[in-house]
Records
---
Amino acid sequence: MTSSQLLGLTIIGYLIASAVYIATFLFKTPKAGVVATVITIATFLAQTAGIILRWVESYEMGIGHAPMTNMYESLVFFSWAIVLFYLYLEIRYKNRLIGAFTMPFAFIAMAYASFAGNIDQQIKPLIPALQSNWLIAHVVTCFIGYAGFAVACGLGIMYLLRRRTSNTDTKSLINSLPALKTIDDLMYRSIVFGFLWLTVGIITGAIWANSAWGTYWSWDPKETWSLITWFIYAATLHAWFTRGWRGRKIAWLSIIGFVAVIFTYFGVNYLLSGLHSYAG
Amino acid sequence: MKNNSIINFFASVKLALFLLFVLAVTSIIGTIIPQGKSADIYIKEFGEKTASLFQILDFTEMYSSWWFVTLLLLLCVNLIVCSLKRIPGALNITGDSNLEIDVDRLARRKDHKDLPTSLSNQEAGHKVAKALKGSGWKTREKQRNEGLLLFAQKGAWTRFGVYIVHSSILVIFVGAMIGNIYGYKGTMMIPETTTKGAIYSFDRQEEIELDFQILCKKFTLSRYPNGAPKEFISDLAVIEDGREVLTKTIEVNDPLHYKGHTFYQSSYRGLEKLLATIQNNQENIATKVLIDPGKEATWRESNVRFGVVNRAGTQEPGLFRYKVWFFDGSGQPQTFWITGGDTTTVKTENGSYTFGLKQFYATGLQVAKDPGVWTVYIGFFMMMGGLYVAFFLSHRRLWVLIKENGGTRVLISGNSNKNKSGFAQDFEETTRKVEKELQ
């Protein structure tokens, strides 16, 4: 087995798992949920092995570095972190329906990493500025944070769906979802989790920048967008704590926040850097 | 009255939410409009009118513009006033006012327990206090009309976690300001084997003299098999009053620190010249000579004349082989090929030499002096610690009312500001201990 075979299997595994979770939700078949969990755990293990193997392979190629250094590898890790966080929620709160709203994120991340034309899957040597242990600390913490935000976004969507029908049709399938209060609580926890890790991610990035270039902050688009994301979630938490915002408003904020996360991640790379390169 | 309304304005969380929102939205501008370019680039890119509008609104250097800095300062003022206004409340909630609680509410809490005991009020009070102390609760008590009231708490200080986070932001701002006022950045380009004692600052557009000098002994560039640069390495030394006081090999991510300055490896330049090292193995003397390709060079002490007469590429991009002509006056002149960075032994009729040749580089250093960095780092650690405390550690409170009601009764009740299920467990354990003590 090579790492690319294992990671290829991961795409299929997460696709099937997402489909079964959604089917469990649509057709109210709790037994199928067990299957979804088993597939998810098996795929997660295969993905973990794939990531480790890719690490080993990079050493065999003589350029050894942790598999977290480019768009492809970070997306794989992003999807891995989403699944890890989701499995924690599923086991801790004994609810499988959340899977229908979060596992698709893990699948999309993997599929995008593998099929988008502009993403290079090769193991590439690192340019000198990236050869630092801070790189690993920075990437790992950021993506754990992003995983928290992805799950919060999934929960936000779930909340809004659940809310639309909660008062009208008691037999509706949406009503099989967890109670609004439970979703609300999980959403808040996911945001707190994401916010803490994003904070650590920005800080490790700043320390790394300082150790490599002598500037801990230079307002480049990536840094600025990560700060914008941080502002959004900081505002969300303040609204939660002091203004008593709950439910619908927080659900929208968790979706908006995740849009900012996605923009920090992709938009800056594909839209803004292009703008800068022709402007500069 | 008027004073109060100003304070209330600055203390409000609404203002904080508004500022965070405005900061988030305005920050986008600087990620779309390139920052810090020269004026003609904006005119070319956006047209004259838009460009002049950018200048007026400071969009071209927005993160240091008056209005953006004002927003940040407003956020600081908001943080300070808001925290100062709320701290008395936090002190109150952890202080003696807990002994003034309306005791009727105790039995209405989710976590409460009513224990009968055969002990007298006094004795029960002692035993309860002892049991609580044993479980890590800090207690105080007051004789109330309704009976003896004990108040106990854990983690009262965690109420201040949020203020640690708020102060951390201020600390980071202070660090940034220290760096802005007392720090500078610049670059140095030092050819190998030479020294420099000044850096060029972009901000000030001038050279800044250092009170020491940097010697670049050697620069090494290694590459990956595909030709991409792998490592830039410079052997540097600090020269002060003509003495070498410190040597360090720096590479990207591993800089040299000296007297508040940090020297980062950032770039290099390959110069036309080549650096030859020759050692006369018999007389044990050596020299370093900088030579131009195609020109003859001499080393007088050993009477050696030599030069590079040809160059050829290797498999490795950027690495060359050189054809060297070498003559020490004995026998015939020698010619041989040597790869850049290698050394070889040259035997002549009367002598033996170790000859090395490498591309001559200038190392490009970035120099930063930022006395505010450690303040900023302290702010970082305060922020991470503060967030952990604010989100995960809870303030747990217990009230115990011991009253006469046809025999002594002990009513225990409590709450926690976070982690309710964790508290419920703690509460159960504590009441069990109290119960045991009372028997």
---
Amino acid sequence: MSTEVPSKTGETDTGRRGRGPGMAGAESADRRQTTQGRWAYTLLAPTLILLAVVIIYPVINAIILSFQKDAGLDKATGFFVQGGFAGVDNYTHWILQQCGSEKCPPGTLGAQFWGAMGTTFLFAAITVILETVLGFWMAIVMARAFKGRSLLRASVLVPWAIPTAVTAKLFFFMFAFDGIINTVFHSSILWTGSEWPARWAIIISDVWKTTPFMALLILAGLQLIPDEVYEAAKVDGAGTWQRFTQITLPLVKPALMVAILFRTLDALRMYDLPAILTGGANNTTTLSILVVQQIRQGFNVASALSTITFVTIFLVAFIFVRFLGANAVESANPRKK
Amino acid sequence: MSILSAVRRDSRRETTIPAPAAGKGTRKRWGADAVGILLAVVVAFPLFWMVLSALKPKTALDAGDSLPFTLQPSFDSFVRVLAVNGFARYFMNSVVVALAVVLVSTLLAFLASVALTRYRFKMRTTLLVTVLVAQMVPVEALTIPLFFLMRQAGQSIPLVGLNQLGSLVVVHVGFAIPFAVWMLRGFVAAVPVEIEEAARLDGASSFRFVRSVLFPLVAPGVVACSVFSFISTWNDFLFAKTFIISAQENQTLPLAILTFFKPDENDWGAIMAGSVIMTIPVLVFFIAVQRKLVSGLAGAVKG
């Protein structure tokens, strides 16, 4: 987290926006910052209170529970285990694959942890890349002026508008052995029956469903680019590709970064599609599926896993904001002169 | 001309990406169009299949009919969905919850994003990252703590307790806000401070400035995040199933469709018909807001 150094002149920083009469610099920078801070917190208060109650409180709750033992029968010994403080046992269960004092046997949930971690990142990487490329292209097509544009925009949105559970059912139906996809391609692939076909089925469904989200966000970002810039570039003799890399890409970057960031965070928590399409079979178990399966066996151990997921995703987001998005925070104000 | 009227005039402008110059060869353009049409077909195919399956007679579906057309379209599946007890009621509940979430989350996020871009204060970056926490936890793991939270909250504020639509609104606003804040932040930041100064010189009050200048300029961002919160609320099974446990009259639409999901014997026709019915309001909402997906900023900055 970068600390903000108050700038002296106040003109170089896009972030500072004095509202009061002191804008010309009559107030001291310090006092201005205090006044601004007060205003800012007034505007932020409702959001922060709501987030504290709905998100932060349950998260902290889950973290506390993750250090507790699940009460219940111990499978290894057959004795009833009281709850109570568990230390980091719930965490070593996942990370070091320890069930009690020994290694988790294959097939148990604990043993699937690293596989699920790999699968989750694999899905996230492939889907986000495909969705960004296709979404960008769709956004550029939709930004052109032509007849029936609003109809096209609305219809492109449809896949995203369908509930995920229904999308999953729809693709399950289509990817079935006697389903339409095998019929159309005259293939006889057991789509959900082995590792890579199952993974591709999930990736295809996810890309189909979420690309419109990317396209819509990028389309909104494209609205920030004035026509004049393109015209000027054209006059200067810039080609299509140059206009794209030199104008479109940099100016749409803040919106694009937000879209990619949120898509990545969402993809890392993918649940519905694999859960319904394959039930997590054939190495398609994601971390979220593992969490849900574990909730049925013991909530405290599941809390540890969801905390691990949270920390992992937090690290990804942190890296993202620090190295890629950090610029988006600072340069979110494209100067157009 | 005053900046206010300039913005208003320009907010109707369309920002367009110019098509490649015709001189570069129409063949290239034609190729791009062909790829576009191919992609549109691929995208549209599952939708076509959805509508087709909703229209096929139940006997054909059960027999595993995979013909790409049907000779006897029937509305039986739609009738089965609409005949679910209290369908109209569920529908209205979904509409109320979704619209409430859109209004509240957009308003709160707009205020928050103004604070995060226009003012400078300690912890700004920390707050931005904190807001993201909602996007980092497996949602499924939060349902149980949230269930107990809502049960407790209901004892002091009945409106947001279990079985109340209020509980859904509160939770969905919480999950929609982080995205909205991040999205709007970029748009608010892109409004040049010169416009604000000009509006002030023209004698606009703060409220007038926000309503007549800032809000129209960030409209594309507002559209994007209102569509986002509408869709995520409209389609939610998880929280609706968790919080609305006994009050039948407060159930939402996805739960009505859920009744057709059965372990061995899914009623595909009804599921597809239900999905078609559920998709229509989203489209209506999008078409209603999408004309705002054009910013006045492009023209307003040059002044």
